Amino acid sequence: MKRPHDDEPPAGEDPTLQSAIRPLKDLQAAMDADISRLYDERDVVGVRPRFSMALIRLRHRGPMTVKELAEQIDVTHSAMSQTVTAMRRDGLVETTPGPDARTREVALTVNGWELVPFLEAEWRATERAFAELEAEVPYPLTCVVDDMWGALRRRSFLDRIKDELDRPAPADDGTGRPSPGRPCHPS
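Below the sequence we write its predicted structure tokens.
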């Protein structure tokens, strides 16, 4: 079956091949992969890094609805619902009907409860390892994040995107990333 525009080559290069944001996502994915490897080395079965905060929070705060847990962890209801489904499948949580027919309450199973002390220790060790990593670089990521939040308070990302849509795209510098306009390392 022929689709519209099959005979027409795409206009310009695929913009998704260049990204200034992707390296940050790749960095976080690499760190999460190392946490997953730690879980494997320690025979922590059925746990993914994205489960840790929810499991720890449930142990400290007790059972809560999917919506409440999503708000606690600062993710969407849909994302938390998927996470709860995975944690339930792996025997870490159980769900029961909530106060009304539309809600489910999430509680730790014995297996989930017993796992939390290790997850808390891993969380604290991860925070210390991240601080050590930051100390090795000339400009800590936490400072970059704070500075970027400050810049976004002055002018939103939405406004920046709209402004960029209205200007011509800059020439490719051959790095595969949009030109940052200044060197990576502060002087």
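The chain has a mean pLDDT of 89.
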